[in-house]
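cron nightly-structures :: item 1 of 1
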Amino acid sequence: MKKILVLVGMLLLTPLFPAFAEDAPVSEMTYILNTFSFLVMGILVMWMAAGFGMLESGLVRSKNVATICLKNIALFGIAGILFYLVGYNLMYAGVDGGYFGSFGLWAADDSAALGGDYSAGYSAASDWFFQMVFCGAACSVVSGCVAERVKIWSFFAFCIVLTGFIYPIQGSWVWGGGWLSAMKKVLLTLIVLMMITVPAAMAAEASGDVYAGFSEKYLWRGFDLSSSVAVAQGGMDVSIGKFTFSYWSNMQALDDAGISGGSLNETDIVVDYSTDLSERVSLSVGNILYDVDGFETTNELYLTVGLNTLLAPALTAYYDWDESEEEGLFMTLSIGHDLEISEKVALNFGALISFNQKSDFAVGTYSGLHNYELSAGADIALTDTISASISALFTEGISDNARQAIDSETTTGVSLAYAF
């Protein structure tokens, strides 16, 4: 019996290696075994729903067990239909560095294999099945988050949107060759987590905002990163409990200094944990992933200690643990205050001073005061969920080393936000 199991394991695993070896010819046997492997592994993934079903059944009241089982069976029917109708092509067909593929029915194309050319490595239908079961598994996660909290038809409606549009579009950004496909492997992990946790958070309890705006230039720590060209900036914050997940991007408005207008040239992803240590003291810790065109992708850890007083003073230390070759520390001390003019209008003022301790990759190899910033703005509530903001910022270098790298700069901007 053991020999049979070992033989079956070898048959399942061996085709995976030559099939993906560079320039290795693909034989008919390799093609068949790769296809068989996709089907078997897809069935195992599909059985995840059985595990989720048993787990959820043990956590709900006995009268809801049948509903839980029905949800975990029916979601694959929904996933299969929607992934066939629009999902697969949205995820893989014609993405070409964009945000999603094309609308249309999936159709298997194995004409090359039928003609004796097995370079595809596996049949198209086995690939569709393998991708579809992962799409359905994402629904299974959401099923547990909303158990006994939504009616079954509401859950099925959500599954239609998730499997037909949300999952395929997010998947196209990386696996379909979309706009995030060139980033580091760590981002692949974040995309997988987002594809599972964001829909679950939307179905459960979460808050946050989505925003977009324009600025006359992009200033970061005193550096003019857009060569005084206008930029469009946008992002999203999602908070679940004390954790906040943030996405932010910068897009150059016009062609300048080798940067193409209309293309994203920086993307930042932030994971933050914030808590109140006492009535007067708050603490935030997190990591920022920077992906900037023309530079190595890098990460900064940060720690912020703030006082919940009139001017809200806060001390933040950033540590570049990824690309910096020396100390890699950058520290800021900031104050700010919001002044309510009316129920719908509030003014905000702020000031910041920074110190660089050989954060050589991002700022410079020197140690000393870096820059100061003065800011002012206004927030205008248009509705209960939509607000507009205007802002102005002035920054200038302090030490001689800093003034050699940055000039006195001023920028203004406007933005629109939707809170949920």
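cron nightly-structures :: done
The chain is about 35% helix and 35% strand.
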